[in-house]
Design brief:
The complex is a heterodimer of chains A (252) and B (478). Chain A is of the alpha/beta class and 252 residues long. Chain A contains ten helices and twelve strands. Chain B has 478 residues and is α/β, with parallel strands linked by helices. In chain B, strands 1, 2, 3, 5, 6, 8, 10, 11, 13, 15 and 17 form an eleven-stranded mixed beta sheet that branches. Chain B has a seven-stranded parallel beta sheet with strand order 4-7-9-12-14-16-18. Chain B starts with a helix and ends in a 6-residue tail after the last helix. The chains are: A alpha/beta (252), B alpha/beta (478).
Chain lengths: 252, 478
């Protein structure tokens, strides 16, 4: 479903992605690991259309469509969801209002009728249970006053509501304690279907014990330099990223 | 209320309000005693009204335009203004002749079709309708003893009430623009609610269509007798154009013992083009007096239009235990400017006032809140709470706050809070990533910000006001 070919991207003239290739098929979970500054979050930003980054070369297609041509909101409506590393707060805008607007925009894009208030509330109730979110959080303004863990759970809640075809989880585990981690991972696993896929961006192997990947890629210096199965994550945990850096240098 | 009533009432009111009966002589522009006399005679006013106008005009000649506002006002040539409104020339005969941009705005605001015709400047007789329900509407009000008519009609049919209360809240010497208004006021509304009567409908839909007629020097007087209640809405969300640039209106409210008056304004006068050229000057004097014990007046305003907005809807809390509220959302985009706020004068005992001001600045807009809370020495136990919030969109606009507090009684409790915030790009991108367009995202965020104020509006207008906020800020982010 997702094909990335030779992607180059910069910010403020500095090149971060230097020729990244990746293929993701439906039903797959891809983990992307790598040291700080490698370009993991940049990849997430470029895929979702954040204007701060400039794509200088390469192609990205999503179900055959040129993703780079689409606006961020259209990419979302096509079925791409990003669970942000640092979700922002939007005071004054209730979660209910926010989600309802988003959901109805998605439906409009697919030529569906907007949901009635009752149907929407029913769906909200179902999905809230997935991430064990209590009513209080849903009635507040978007992320306002939420703790780090609550914000991450709120991201997965939104993911459950929007049912994306491709979910990008950007360091979903950062700032979470064991219990929160388990709830978040549980939610992600329950949403897995044969026709959707996830890209899980993380530093640590720990999350990947809960969300088991089909492929593990190592992103270093703007490119994917190594790909393996879930055992690669364990190897990285043991040997650290220096091992990868040495391998890359030796191959040059 | 059915849409037919709206149309019928509009047609009827057209016949009252303005005398569009023009002889073949030329209407002079400029201001002089002769013009004042001309206005008065065209309206067939009694002698006492002419005397009042002349007194005001002579006083105006001794006054100078105030310059203390945080506003950049180009010089106004008072001699090049037409003080007697001419009827509309070249009125469009059907919607095909109307500016498509205007029609698009009506669509976005959800304004009903027949209202679009009237708002486009079409002569009302061009609007077809056959059901005559005007009588029913006027009947139900008059059965209750409620007087709701044009100001001119009130001068003719209810001169005692007009003479007693007109200028009792805003004296003719009050300020430069009020004095001018007293000399040349065109028309407006007159409302009288008798003792113990609760007005059963929003006095709003009626006035909406008619807004275009009452012209630049509008004059409104609302009297709520003991134990009565009325909710009045002025203006409309549709963008209003006018040949006349200066709008200096006066609104006076008198609330007797236990009476309650709720006055809401939604203003979207033409703000000028993207470079700030043209645009209407909205210099208004609005004041209410809580005359009787336990009376209550509340002002709610949504100001999104005009090139320059300069107004301080205020309350004099004379009666013991009386209370006043001021809710405001003022938007300045492109080159718009606003210097607005309120004055709460606490005179009686146990009085309270509540102020909530939400300013939104975008583009090169300059938005100022100016408020006065004055507690007189005899005002035992008064309470005031003020909250002024500013929201900035972009980095070229400005938000300013000038709160004044004069407290002369030590049992008073006066509280003031202020916040300043920005909509940042991360918030917009977050919304984008959920499938919400930037335009809608700004709308969501701004409406969340203004919610507390918009909730004060009569429901039908709250929805339109939300859309209006979004449209006014189109293109201001990203």
């Amino acid at each position: 479903m997702l094909e990335i070919k030779n992607l180059h991207a910069s910010i403020n003239g500095k090149e971060i992605l230097k020729g990244l290739d990746l293929v993701v098929r439906p039903g797959e979970i891809h983990a992307i690991m790598g040291p700080n500054g490698a370009g993991k979050s940049t990849l997430a930003s470029v895929l979702t259309g954040n204007q701060t980054f400039e794509v200088t070369k390469g192609e990205v297609t999503f179900y055959g469509k040129n993703l780079l041509e689409l606006s961020p909101e259209d990419r979302s409506r096509e079925g791409i969801f990003l669970s942000f590393q640092y979700p922002v707060e939007i005071p004054g805008v209730s979660m209910v209002n926010f989600m309802r607007t988003a959901l109805n925009e998605h439906r409009k894009y697919k030529n569906l009728e907007p949901l009635s208030a009752t149907d929407f509330l029913r769906i909200m109730r179902e999905k809230k249970e997935l991430v064990e979110m209590d009513n209080k959080l849903a009635n507040r303004s978007v992320n306002e006053g939420f703790s780090g863990g609550e914000k991450k759970r709120n991201e997965i809640f939104q993911m459950a509501m929007l049912e994306p075809r491709l979910a990008i989880l950007d360091e979903t585990d950062s700032g979470l304690d064991i219990d929160a981690l388990r709830i978040v991972a549980n939610g992600v696993n329950k949403l897995k279907r044969p026709d959707n896929a996830s890209i899980v961006i993380t530093h640590y192997q720990r999350l990947l014990e809960y969300i088991v990947p089909d492929f593990v890629h190592v992103l270093y210096d703007g490119r994917i330099v190594k790909t393996g199965g879930k055992e690669l994550a364990m190897e990285l945990e043991d040997k650290g990223y220096d091992w990868i850096k040495k391998e890359v240098e030796e191959n040059i | 209320m059915s849409t037919d009533i709206l149309h019928e009432v509009t047609q009827a009111d057209y016949k009252y309000g303005f005398t569009t009966d023009i002889e073949t002589d030329i209407i002079p522009i400029g201001l002089s005693e002769d013009v004042v006399r001309l206005i008065s005679s065209k309206k067939k006013e009694p002698e006492w009204m002419l005397e009042f106008r002349l007194k005001a005009y002579r006083h105006w000649l001794t006054m100078k335009m105030p310059e203390w506002a945080h506003l950049d006002i180009p010089k106004i040539d008072y001699q090049s203004i037409a003080y007697y409104a001419a009827p509309r020339k070249n009125a469009p005969k059907n919607l095909d002749e109307v500016d498509p941009e205007l029609l698009k705005t009506f669509e976005k605001l959800g304004i009903p079709l027949h209202e679009r015709m009237a708002l486009s400047g079409m002569a009302v007789d061009a609007v077809m309708d056959s059901v005559s329900v005007k009588t029913t509407f006027k009947e139900s009000l008059s059965e209750l003893g409620i007087i709701f008519c044009s100001f001119s009609e009130a001068v003719e049919h209810h001169p005692d009430l007009v003479q007693k209360y007109m200028s009792s809240v805003v004296p003719y010497t009050d300020n430069f623009f009020a004095t001018l208004n007293c000399a040349v006021f065109s028309d407006g509304s007159f409302v009288y609610i008798p003792k113990g009567v609760r007005c059963p409908m929003e006095l709003s839909t009626y006035f909406r269509i008619n807004a275009m007629n009452t012209g630049q020097f509008e004059r409104t007087l609302i009297i709520a007798d003991e134990d009565s209640y009325v909710s009045y809405l002025e203006g409309c969300t549709a963008p209003m154009r006018d040949e006349n640039q200066l709008h200096a209106a006066i609104v006076e409210i008198v609330a007797m013992k236990n009476a309650q008056v709720k006055y809401s304004t939604v203003q979207n006068w033409y703000p000028g083009d993207k470079n700030g050229k043209g645009g209407i000057y909205n210099f208004v004097t609005k004041r209410g007096i809580c005359k009787g014990e336990s009376s209550k007046i509340s002002w709610t305003q949504v100001e999104t239009g005009s090139a320059i907005t300069w107004k301080y809807p205020s309350c004099i809390l004379l009666g013991d235990n009386s209370s006043a509220e001021f809710y405001s959302v003022a938007v300045t985009n492109h080159h718009q400017q606003a210097d607005t706020g309120t004055k709460m004068l606490h005179i009686g005992k146990n009085t309270s006032s509540h102020i909530l001001s939400k300013g939104i600045s975008a583009g090169f807009g300059q938005n100022s809140y100016r408020g006065l809370v004055k507690i007189n020495p005899a005002a035992e136990n008064s309470r005031n709470f003020s909250q002024c919030d500013s929201l900035l969109l972009g980095d070229k606009c400005g938000a300013h706050t000038f709160p004044y507090m004069e407290v002369n009684n030590d049992t008073a409790i006066v509280q003031h809070e202020a916040t300043t915030s920005k909509i940042n790009e991360d918030q917009i991108f977050y919304c984008n990533q959920r499938g919400i367009s930037t335009e809608d995202a700004v709308g969501l965020i701004v409406n969340g910000y203004a919610k507390e104020v918009l909730n004060q509006l009569p429901m039908e207008f709250a929805v339109e006001a939300q859309k209006l906020l979004q449209i006014t800020l189109e293109g201001s982010v990203g």
